[in-house]
């Protein structure tokens, strides 16, 4: 294969996480969504048209496909697998990918400012929606859980006081949350090493898991973030500091080990600093954001001993097959996986059966507080009808909502 420099002239479409195959089926260029790899390079094919090139717009870090054919040409696009270059009428356009998506701020200040008023947040983490589309936000650094009405940027405190503490009416940096049909809120109270149940309209919470003391026995929890609840009231708890997932049945005083061994590792039966959880009860799966191993693990609910890697698992990195400190995951009814790839400042979409992800929100390694950029996203949540994706834009101190294509 001969790589040449060329004068890119006519833009005919955008490129995202793909493989390029020339019309002689021999010339191939791999592309992993890094603009450093598409600075007006091209390949030479043994058949005409002979030149196809990439160029990078530096103002928004977006790569585009160009042609400068000696004859006419177009591109046939097969998303996530390959681009095939064929003869066709001159410079015919292809449809551009809709990514990165543009979002609106639904909680916190859109400019990224932190605060502790009813209109502001500081490092939001867990998200939940109830049946009336009320948005619940774990306001981590303000040690409270906020509730926001649809189309309102003014929230109401539903748990905690806004001051970190260990009393029954206080929280110590809440992580993930769950809301049941009665409006009760379940909260992983991270730095208090406990899970709290805050009943609807209550001023105090009740400890339902953990002892409030950091520990590694089955009755204790360490520092942690992830929490989900099934239809029978069982809690799955991501005990990050102990590298394990614990299952807590209703009214139990001791949990049982569900996944991980309690020791950090990268084997299929081990975890390293697990964060967010997603429960797919219909298919009997629990998805675990195995942050320290830069992967998403899927466990069968009937046996959590061995996990299957469904995203990442190729070491820490910024390529489309890698993750960097992933913090959370959610999965659509079709099985598509959305990942808050925190230290890459992006949301990755991993289609069913894919070996690479697509960056649908944010730009890899780029931080910002506009409508398309993120700064350390920590949580992802699909709306009930899967039309919208909510993102805790942690270091921008806001929650963003995106209309999915």
Automatic annotation (TrEMBL):
<dbReference type="InterPro" id="IPR011042">
    <property type="entry name" value="6-blade_b-propeller_TolB-like"/>
</dbReference>
<keyword id="KW-0677">Repeat</keyword>
<dbReference type="InterPro" id="IPR001258">
    <property type="entry name" value="NHL_repeat"/>
</dbReference>
<dbReference type="Pfam" id="PF01436">
    <property type="entry name" value="NHL"/>
</dbReference>
<dbReference type="InterPro" id="IPR050952">
    <property type="entry name" value="TRIM-NHL_E3_ligases"/>
</dbReference>
<protein>
    <recommendedName>
        <fullName>NHL repeat containing protein-like protein</fullName>
    </recommendedName>
</protein>
<feature type="repeat" description="NHL">
    <location>
        <begin position="322"/>
        <end position="353"/>
    </location>
</feature>
<dbReference type="GO" id="GO:0008270">
    <property type="term" value="F:zinc ion binding"/>
</dbReference>
């Amino acid at each position: 294969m001969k790589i040449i420099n060329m004068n890119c002239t006519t833009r005919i479409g955008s490129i995202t996480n793909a493989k390029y195959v020339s019309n002689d089926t021999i010339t191939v260029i791999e592309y992993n969504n890094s603009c450093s790899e598409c600075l007006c390079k091209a390949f030479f094919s043994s058949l005409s048209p002979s030149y196809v090139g990439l160029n990078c717009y530096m103002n928004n870090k977006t790569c585009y496909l160009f042609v400068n054919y000696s004859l006419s040409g177009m591109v046939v696009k097969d998303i996530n697998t390959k681009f095939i270059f064929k003869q066709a009428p001159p410079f015919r356009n292809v449809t551009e990918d809709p990514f990165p998506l543009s979002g609106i701020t639904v909680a916190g200040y859109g400019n990224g400012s932190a605060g502790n008023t009813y209109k502001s947040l500081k490092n939001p983490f867990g998200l939940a929606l109830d049946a009336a589309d009320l948005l619940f936000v774990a306001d981590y650094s303000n040690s409270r859980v906020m509730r926001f009405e649809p189309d309102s940027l003014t929230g109401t405190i539903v748990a905690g006081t806004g001051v970190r503490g260990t009393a029954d009416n206080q929280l110590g940096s809440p992580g993930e949350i769950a809301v049941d049909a009665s409006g009760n809120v379940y909260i992983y109270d991270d730095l208090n090493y406990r899970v709290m149940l805050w009943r609807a309209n209550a001023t105090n919470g009740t400890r339902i898991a953990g002892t409030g003391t950091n520990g590694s026995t089955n009755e204790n929890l360490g520092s942690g973030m992830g929490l989900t609840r099934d239809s029978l009231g069982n809690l799955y708890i991501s005990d990050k500091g102990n590298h394990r997932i614990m299952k807590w049945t209703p009214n139990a005083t001791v949990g049982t080990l569900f996944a991980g061994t309690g020791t950090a590792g990268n084997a299929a039966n081990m975890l390293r600093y697990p964060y967010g959880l997603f429960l797919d009860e219909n298919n009997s799966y629990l998805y675990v954001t195995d942050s320290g191993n830069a992967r998403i693990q899927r466990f069968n609910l009937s046996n959590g001993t061995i996990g299957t890697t469904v995203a990442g698992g190729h070491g820490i990195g910024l390529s489309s097959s890698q993750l960097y400190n992933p913090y959370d995951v959610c999965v659509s009814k079709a099985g598509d996986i959305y990942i808050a790839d925190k230290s890459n400042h992006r949301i990755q979409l991993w289609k069913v059966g894919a070996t690479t992800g697509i960056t649908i929100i944010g730009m890899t390694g780029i931080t910002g507080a506009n409508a398309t950029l993120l700064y350390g996203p920590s949580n992802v949540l699909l709306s009930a009808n899967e039309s919208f994706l909510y993102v805790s834009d942690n270091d921008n101190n806001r929650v963003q909502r995106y209309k999915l294509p």
